[in-house]
Structure to design on (1156 residues):
């Protein structure tokens, strides 16, 4: 396929590499052009404007947040895009913006697919992402071959793109809540002289298997929050988005409110670039330890 | 072994049956004696006072809560118990009472082992409980053969009995927090028209495998909270105990505070006897659904 | 003085009336022009564009929220305004927008004063508002005579306009927290058979005199939330802004998080247009009453 | 009147002094007898057992907490007390214990009046306490002359003694919530460069007059938490009791949960003996300041 790709952060680069390996033609664009160089060496065609990427069979975007997206995907860009183009937005953005973009694309005869991913850069590099796709079924059908080279599984959520964003935000909220809870439990057990690793061994053997409790639990047990797999700053961004999405449908999320406060506290102590397992540190500090 | 057993609720009965099957002699006592009848038929010796149970090689107790325990295990009972007797308390009680009991037993030359269990009655019946044991190593060594017939795994936590109780309460706190979070996530996704079961499929396939998210998630997705596997009323009891144990070591647990408030709200709406997945109902009601 | 006035809600109308009574010339503009009619009868000059209001000695604006303000006060309007014009924005807006506006005005040689007010329409009508003013001292000096006819007291906060907005939002956060607390206390005392009015009599006689506890407390005691003096919907708007202002300086506000959740719950139950004393209803409902 | 008095803390001593000044006969008892010496000099008769105090027309008690009360007021003491004796308990105790004591006294033909007070030792010394009395009207009538010399106002709440305790706990909960809110607001405004004292001036001039906001606000503005007028440790005790009283009637108090967590955090940082305005410090620390 002839694919445009906008946004070459760690995740974007890994996705493009897998697209190239699978034989797709990829026109790449990034605000800082040097990020594109290694991809050029691997066969990507580097273009000099988002508009040049916004063409072909489909264009994928993976930008940092709502602001970055608004700075690139504007009315003019959509106006000049070829009718029928499919835009697959893989970033974690607000539900409100996803809704707005779906509408703006439809008005101009473009297809908008929201396809946020679960998984970190190492998972992206291995082509093992979990993709949560929302939007018109025919559009998703057409890009499914591309999804198959960057992810191991695509979940189709519904015909409204923003529903995929809701799903992603809810998943990240659950992740954040689990890490906050682990941090609090660590403070409780260590306060009574029990080693956090012993506690982890017990709960991950039965109630809570899986990568979240084991991975973040270990970081908390060892009080080692670097290198960051998922930064506290980004965790806070997603919790804010989950709260906003919930607010939009008049739904209180009291646990998310607690996690938000804890993440703000982490940022206030200069820990925004650390892994968001640093929530364990927030809890320990509150207990004076 | 010659074993006494005090407290014949569902869990106690299942444990005694496994002890009998393994060939142990068991003297059983319960406040309501009719609970002992089926066990008598299976070979247990029914005694008419706690004191008669409080003898032999070891005595196990599985009473409902702190109050029930205090009503049975008093100074007089300990005074008349044979020196060197091992008392294994398998109930989920407060850390403060565990500490007090450890001290009271030691004063009278008795051994006190705290061995709270993870697992519900069906797990107990299958002899597959997870046992978290705290107390003097030699005492635990001596009762280990009994643990092996009622549980599939014994975790030894430390020499202070109350540390096993802390572990159990921390595990139940994590459970309660996971269920509360599931309930909130359900309100978020369904508020945007996404089916909870679809969301569950995504998260249990990757981030959150295991019985907790699948089991409680399903109840929440189906809004079906009966029959109760773990009652909201008992969940609240354990969260209160976790908060008290944390308070005793000056540790705030903000997520536990949120869960406590939600469980109280469930009780206030008459749902105390339902499964504590009814936290999903609490969240839905707050969102006006 | 020759004054422009933009935004003729209840508050704006009351302010303009007092300006007219004091002999000022007022050019008024509102999106729905019929709101201007009664003022025309009282001597105001009705203009047909914001730009016509944006001239003279000073222009005052009192628009509903950030979105309404952004829709009216745009780059073009500022570009064409006469240099040296003072813009006094009396609305409760976000700290971020206040900062942005201060910057945008300064760039074009205009003076920006933030002067949010404490007080409801009846207080505005009586010319008894409390004005919290932030911005350049000389600009405030020049509009002080106008402040003196719409308010009984002007507090000068600092030279940064947004500091006045912070102050207003913090005051409204305190108000919301007091009402939430009253609601919870009402549930506690009535749950034990004590009349809320008896409780109110005790606390307002000593600890908590003043209009907030008496006024909102009475509404809660009588479970009567209409007519609304301050709507729950607007209370939520302000709590959201307070949380955002706090987030911007990495400050958790856990009580504000709780109040936000409660107000969302009120909205979810269709009570957004009721007085925000309806927080008492939220608390009562949670307790099953 | 012939009065017994049990518990000679700061509050108790001040009350007894006022009783003596008014001409009453007072038999005093305290666990540490040296606390009684200055009162003996002022005319009190020092007795050597609680039982000797538990006689005459009425006995007043002012003990620190539930545990201290249980240690002194036991079944034997009540058994030997003269029938018809009125016991006025002025301490802030749990609602559950108040209910239990009311029952235990009634069984033995004794009258139990709960009369917790609002006011600190300096207010007690001036005879200006606010008394919140619950219990049988005739019993309160008989001790009213004594109330009149230790307090400036007696509020009669109802015929159930524990209702007076609920009232007191609800009042202290409101106090704690106001101080927590002040602390959070201080972090918000100072985070934006606004002086807390300026903010206080604005809110106490209008919305929030009265001693609570002015007094605690000033301590927070000056970040000066000693000498303590009301210790954080005691504030936490009362918030715990309010939460327990609410739990007993299935009422969630989310703001109280937040305040409890903050007070625990203060204790964890060694600030339990400081004034509970130290909640301002907790909030500042969370914001990294």
């Amino acid at each position: 396929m002839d694919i445009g790709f906008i946004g070459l952060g760690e995740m974007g680069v890994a996705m493009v590499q897998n697209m190239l390996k699978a034989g797709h033609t990829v026109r790449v664009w990034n605000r800082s052009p040097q990020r594109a160089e290694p991809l050029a060496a691997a066969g990507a065609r580097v273009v000099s404007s988002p508009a040049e990427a916004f063409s072909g069979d489909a264009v994928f975007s993976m930008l940092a947040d709502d602001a970055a997206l608004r700075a690139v995907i504007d009315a003019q860009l959509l106006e000049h895009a070829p009718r029928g183009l499919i835009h697959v937005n893989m970033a974690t953005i607000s539900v409100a913006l996803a809704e707005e973009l779906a509408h703006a694309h439809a008005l101009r005869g473009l297809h908008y697919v929201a396809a946020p991913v679960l998984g970190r850069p190492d998972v992206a590099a291995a082509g093992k992402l979990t993709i949560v796709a929302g939007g018109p079924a025919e559009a998703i059908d057409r890009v499914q071959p591309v999804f198959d080279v960057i992810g191991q599984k695509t979940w189709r959520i519904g015909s409204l793109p923003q529903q995929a964003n809701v799903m992603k935000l809810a998943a990240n909220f659950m992740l954040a809540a689990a890490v906050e809870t682990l941090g609090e439990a660590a403070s409780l057990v260590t306060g009574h002289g029990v080693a956090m690793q012993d506690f982890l061994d017990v709960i991950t053997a039965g109630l809570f298997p899986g990568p979240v409790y084991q991975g973040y639990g270990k970081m908390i047990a060892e009080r080692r929050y670097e290198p960051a797999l998922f930064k506290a700053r980004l965790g806070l961004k997603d919790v804010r988005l989950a709260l906003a999405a919930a607010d939009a449908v008049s739904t209180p999320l009291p646990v998310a409110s607690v996690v938000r406060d804890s993440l703000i506290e982490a940022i206030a102590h200069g820990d925004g670039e650390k892994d968001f397992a640093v929530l364990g540190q927030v809890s320990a500090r509150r207990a004076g330890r």
In short: The first helix of chain C runs from residue 10 to 21. Chain C has two domains: 2-159, 166-286. Chain C touches chain B at residues 254, 261, 265, 268-270, 286-289 (CB under 8 Å).
